[in-house]
Specification:
Layout: E1 3-4, H1 18-27, E2 32-35, H2 44-54, E3 57-68, E4 71-78, H3 85-111, H4 118-124, H5 133-142, H6 149-157, E5 170-171, H7 172-181, E6 185-188, H8 202-210, E7 215-219, H9 225-238, E8 241-244, H10 265-282
Parallel strand pairs: 1-2, 2-3, 3-5, 6-7, 7-8
Antiparallel strand pairs: 3-4, 4-6
Helix pairs in contact: 1-2, 4-5, 5-6
Bound molecules: adenosine monophosphate (AMP), fe (iii) ion (FE) (2 copies) and zinc ion.
Length: about 290
Amino acid sequence: MRIDLHTHSSVSDGTDDPTTLVRHAAASGLDVVALTDHDTAEGWSEAAAAAAEVGITLVRGMEISTALGHASVHLLGYLPDPTYPPLATALDKILDGRNSRVPGICARLQALGFDVTAEDVRRRAIDAAATGRPHVADVMVAAGMVASRDEAFERFLNPGRPAYVDRYAVPLHEAISLVAASGGVSVLAHPWGRGRAVVLPEARLSELRDAGLVGIEVDHQDHPPAARDALRAIARNLDLVVTGSSDHHGTGKTDHDLGCNTTAPEEYARLLDLAAESARASGRPAPGVLA
Ligand code: AMP
Ligand code: FE
Ligand code: FE
Ligand code: ZN
């Protein structure tokens, strides 16, 4: 059984719509795929219909933008009830922050001599509930200002670069609580990717486990082999579920093909058991896995 628990559609910053993404997942030989768009459940119903059509299992998830102090941390929430009012309110606040920073990014780009407008970005992100810097990057690529999303981030959009604008993220502990209270389970996305190892050492992971975190994404393209080994050992010590996934963004990220990393069936089974337990404890109508 091949299981990929982290993918993005054009409902956030992936390039395939949910139907196409799920069809690609089936064509790539996956049996289980999770749709984890940034900060939204908007793609779930379309993905569910496509999964039923092609006969694979869809796990409904989301990748929540959280903050730990000044650091940005991505939290994968699996099987939460997105209509749980406190979760819905937090997601709305994040999506508002995503939209309201676009004019600021554009103003900075214009000051640098690049004619990128908020209207261009809106048009580019037309299918997206969650607008992101990748959509700004896509406008720049289409206009020939940069060659790739990567170049746009490295030169302009990353923190410390001249067009970077910060946005709201939910405090990490609050996000873990919201996912649990909505009947779902939380897994840290790429915990040691892009310099985050200093933010999330074992002692911190242990404390997050005590706060309700159930797993960590170990097999991810942002983790070199030594990081994966170390994280696997930490997961064993802390009794955390180990996941592996592609973090596929369609053509928006190279070297993140569907199924390039996968989750072991026994770890997936554990995650589902914990989700079922969370749903029972919360009393929320958790969406369940669609077989
Ligand atoms: P935002 O959602 O606006 O904070 O932008 C962050 C998103 O941009 C992440 O979720 C990544 O998917 C994407 N991203 C970050 N760095 C790059 C890069 N170098 N190339 C392509 N996509 C990137
Ligand atoms: Fe992304
Ligand atoms: Fe992420
Ligand atoms: Zn992701």
